[in-house]
Fold each of these.
Amino acid sequence: MIKPEARNPHLDDLDEDFLYHLGLTSKMDLKAVFGDTKYVCMGGSADRAETFANKVSEELNIPIPGGSAQPIAKTERFSMFKVGPVISINHGMGQPSLSILLNEIAKLLDHAGCPQGSVKFVRIGTSGGVGVEGGTIVIADEALNAKLEPKHVKTILGEDKEFPTKLDEQLAKDIFELRGDFEAVFGKTIGTDDFYEGQARLDGALDPGYTEEDKMDYIRKAHNAGARNFEMESPEFASFCLRAGIPAAVVCCALLNRLNGDQVDATPEQLAQYSDNAQQVVLNYIKADRKKSAGALLSANWPSE
Ligand code: R2B
Ligand code: URA
């Protein structure tokens, strides 16, 4: 699962690895449940993870015993569902929460014996559009931090360490091409550590100490740097997956165009539709990708003349 050069050698010293936030351990039969995983689809909310799992069942024609998806193990922090080759799980809001999830899911799949490169990670999220209207889907080729740099800076042992944030270009192109009838653009996604001042909003609780003009200068600068949306996870997501050798994509719907305002004032129906659309784009990709791999398997097994 994790490329050998990046895998943590200290894990070999553990008799049992407790995946504490998931409520699973390496002594369980993880291979039986997770060994066939091909896609890990994640987004902030537990409700959306459940909805996505049920859609996977319908669209991929994989019946769920009992009729609807049930969470696996504990749901105190994250809610995980598995339908056929797809894990659907929520990661909470922000990079610290996502980082915990990424570490434990990557170890889970490693303990389950998934071969390296065989599982794709897709973040299906919500975001604030930068020059794109609410409802547009932004497929990222790279993540930027709040300084608009293509890197993720983590403080480790008291020192800042930098990690690149490129996403899998081929996977992004494939998702774009197979998206179906949805308005989508390629662009860079900015991941910040804050929704309000960190994303240049003027509607937080405290006096931000900057003006409308300062705000617009920053958002325009972001647009000129190739950014098309703001969210709160992509630098951690992209850098973790790149380090681990996991093909990864970020597919987010825009809830509003930040050039026109700060408040998320779309109706509940519109918001549900936007996030539905982003999920459907990824489902369309998974369906096509499954057909392609089934075709490849068939022709490999077909006796040659
Ligand atoms: C998008 O939406 C959330 C904030 O509303 C955050 O998790 C993100 O990245
Ligand atoms: N999520 C964000 O992080 N920012 C937005 O503007 C909307 C959703």
Note: The chain has a mean pLDDT of 97.
Amino acid sequence: MSIRKKVLAANWKLNLAKEGIGEFSRGIRQRQDGDIELVVAPPFPYLRDLVVESSGEGRPFTVAAQNCSDEESGAFTGEVAPGMIAGVGARYVIVGHSERRTLFGETDEMIGRKLDRARAAGLVPIFCIGESEELRDQGKTLETLRRQIDAALSTAGGDFGWLIVAYEPVWAIGTGKNATPEEVRGAHQAIEGFVAPHLAGGAFSVLYGGSVKPSNAAELASIDEVDGFLVGGASLAVDTCLGIYDPMRG
Ligand code: PEP
């Protein structure tokens, strides 16, 4: 079942110095009204700092990791287990971002194992899917989304309680190019149909990502099938982050 819970997820990638965290959280704290879940995904070393910044009165945001291991423990140098991420107080984890797929060789099956591990650790996964420009040009967008969903979710199996799916056309990430509202609506409707049979009735939300910024957020946010955004570049500064957040309030 798709649920219309609004989420704005900020993916800081390999950016932002630790000193920027206080300014960011102060700016967000002044504006947050609780209707929209703002999720911040910093580099691993800042996870705990963000959890501490976000605690206390009026919890301004929740915290996500940008990746996790598909193993829970063992001789896997450099890996971070979902249980460790949950242990520092993060609630979400981004899984299968296109940069992980293309730059670090993550397969659909590995992503499925990560989803399974993340769920077992009590994290809500933000499961990223999206077609390359080449596949889009071949008219294979929906076929690609279906394949990514089927492969990962049949590996992971079962109910997630709540799963967030992020539709991120690869050609739109960090490029300034956007899918049109019609393309976004069509893809999100298809994704709902592809995901639902895997989840045994569990709830899910579908976010859009790819060069979302204050100037296009209102139009994209007005699409019924869009439950929020996963944002990279524009999430690094409080002003642009709030410039996307505000139109989501409707
Ligand atoms: C992303 O990396 O998930 C993303 C959507 O980046 P950007 O907003 O910069 O396109």
Note: The chain has a mean pLDDT of 94.
